[in-house]
């Protein structure tokens, strides 16, 4: 099962919509609640990052028997120092973004904690690709 969603940078009103729709699908597929919760948290944070930090993005979701693979590809400023971006509390969010309650600097670390594998590749001034894989059956890990 595969699908694709678009994200518009700056559109905070819609941030989280893709995570919500994936949550519904995982529920329909009877995926274990604890597992689906992790997937939805990681996707939510990835979605918010595109809205907060990039210009536009595409989320590809690929679910098979064994795992869910989420690929978030954006056009944006990219991440020059991925290790630094991963640090808890590190954030370049603008004051306006912080006023809306985002920008705590915990998104990427939460995505890592809530997925079985996370891979980030980024080209400064072009964009970022974040790939998240989570195994659906806990014993398949
Ligand atoms: N998709 C992205 N494009 C560009 N920069 C990003 C992206 N995602 C994260 N970053 C950078 O990594 C930092 C840390 O991200 P995160 O841990 O989610 O914290 P926050 O979003 O609260 O700032 C961001 O402040 C930003 O500098
Ligand atoms: Mg974030």
Which ligands are bound? adenosine-5'-diphosphate, magnesium ion
Name the CATH superfamily classification.
Histidine kinase-like ATPase, C-terminal domain
Mean pLDDT: 96
The CATH topology corresponds to Heat Shock Protein 90
Q: How large is the count of helical segments?
A: 5
* Overall tally of domains: 1
Give me the count of strands.
Answer: 5
CATH architecture label? 2-Layer Sandwich
Low-confidence stretches: none
Approximate helicity band: 25-40%
Shape: globular
Radius of gyration: 14 Å
Largest sheet: 5 strands, antiparallel
- The CATH C-level name is Alpha Beta
Distance between the termini: 20 Å
Which structural class should the secondary elements be placed in? Answer: alpha+beta
In short:
The chain has 141 residues and is an alpha+beta fold.
């Amino acid at each position: 099962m595969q699908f694709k969603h678009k994200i518009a940078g700056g559109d905070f009103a819609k941030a989280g919509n893709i995570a919500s729709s994936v949550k519904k699908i995982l529920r329909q597929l009877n995926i274990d609640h604890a597992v689906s919760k992790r997937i939805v948290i990681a996707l939510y944070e990835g979605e918010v990052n595109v809205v907060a930090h990039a210009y536009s993005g595409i989320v590809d979701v690929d679910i098979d028997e064994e795992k869910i693979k989420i690929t978030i590809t954006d056009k944006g400023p990219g991440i020059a120092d991925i290790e630094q971006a991963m640090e808890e509390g590190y954030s370049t969010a603008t004051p306006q973004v912080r006023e809306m309650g985002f920008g705590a600097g915990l998104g990427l670390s939460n995505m890592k904690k809530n997925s079985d594998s996370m891979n980030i590749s980024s080209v400064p001034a072009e964009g970022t690709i974040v790939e998240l894989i989570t195994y659906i059956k806990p014993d398949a890990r």
